[in-house]
Each structure stands twice: as structure tokens, then as C-alpha cells.
Design goal:
The protein has about 70 residues and is mostly helical. It contains three helices and no strands. α1 crosses α2. It is elongated.
């Protein structure tokens, strides 16, 4: 999909050099992938606060059954 974006050339070039990418397209694709990954990780972290744990659960019981 062809897209026209107004991206700061200095930032794009610095990202290309730091990331050791050959093309601007590679920089943008990796940046988008990292953005998505970080957002998904943030969602997972938020889920940890919504999980209810059974206070009576004893994980050590499973060890004794062997």
C-alpha cells in the first residue's frame, strides 16, 4: 500500500543509522512493529492487575503428589 507521510528527514536518517537499516522503508516497518509490540505488552501488564487469585491455593501440594 503506497502512503505519503511527512516524516522528519533528520529523525528518519538517524533511526536508519542507529538501526543499521539500508532503507527508510525498513526503518518505518521496524518502528511500527516495535510500537505494536510495546502496546501489546502494556495491555498484558494491565491484565495482571485484573486477575483474581485464590488465596487458599497452595502450589506446594502439587509437589507432594509425585
Amino acid at each position: 500500500m503506497a502512503t505519503n507521510l511527512a516524516i522528519d528527514d533528520k529523525l528518519l536518517e538517524e533511526a536508519r543509522i542507529v538501526g543499521k537499516h539500508a532503507t527508510k522503508k525498513a526503518v518505518v516497518n521496524e518502528a511500527l512493529a516495535e510500537y505494536i509490540q510495546r502496546r501489546k505488552q502494556a495491555e498484558i501488564i494491565n491484565l495482571f492487575h485484573s486477575v483474581e487469585y485464590d488465596p487458599d491455593y497452595d502450589y506446594k501440594i502439587q509437589r507432594k503428589k509425585q
